[in-house]
TrEMBL record:
<dbReference type="InterPro" id="IPR036271">
    <property type="entry name" value="Tet_transcr_reg_TetR-rel_C_sf"/>
</dbReference>
<feature type="domain" description="HTH tetR-type">
    <location>
        <begin position="2"/>
        <end position="62"/>
    </location>
</feature>
<dbReference type="Pfam" id="PF00440">
    <property type="entry name" value="TetR_N"/>
</dbReference>
<keyword id="KW-0804">Transcription</keyword>
<keyword id="KW-0805">Transcription regulation</keyword>
<protein>
    <submittedName>
        <fullName>TetR/AcrR family transcriptional regulator</fullName>
    </submittedName>
</protein>
<keyword id="KW-0238">DNA-binding</keyword>
<feature type="DNA-binding region" description="H-T-H motif">
    <location>
        <begin position="25"/>
        <end position="44"/>
    </location>
</feature>
<dbReference type="InterPro" id="IPR001647">
    <property type="entry name" value="HTH_TetR"/>
</dbReference>
<dbReference type="InterPro" id="IPR009057">
    <property type="entry name" value="Homeodomain-like_sf"/>
</dbReference>
<dbReference type="GO" id="GO:0003677">
    <property type="term" value="F:DNA binding"/>
</dbReference>
Amino acid sequence: MSEARARLLNAATELFYAEGLHAVGVDRVIAHAQVTRATLYRHFPSKDDLLVAYLTQADEAFRARVDEARAAERSSADAVRTVGRTITGDIQNSGFRGCAFLNAAAEYPDPSHPVHLAVLAHRQWFLDTMTELFSGIGKIDPEPAARHFVMLRDGAMTAGCLTDPQPICETFLRGLEGLLTFRSREKSGS
């Protein structure tokens, strides 16, 4: 990645996450990145392209963190716990403004818009990944467990920027532990 492209993406990430996708125009990104308009459009032909690149970068960063959790843990259950702790760590970070993907979906509700499609792709990957992890811990119904995990995460990410994040994180992690034990094969006698 060129230095100018990296500066543009870093500026876009900072501004879009802090202020919103519609609220930040390309002129602000150009000024913040200290590049010319021609440089912006050479790397990103439209604002939509810049928005999708911002979300793609966020997606890649989160995928890497999930991959690290999977590689570091001996069991799928521990990997799920580590992913959960990663999420609660994000929620407790200074400047936390919720989930970049949920925020983007709220601003771009048209299901055919490239931004919305990028959000859906990220969410499908996350659901598929969590389904795979829950499959590895002996769940009878890994897909519903994964959907439940994603729903708990969505709620925690939303509530975590509205109020004190500590009880939100504690509640999320308690819910995660419930998912790890609820209807396991060992408890159901199968």
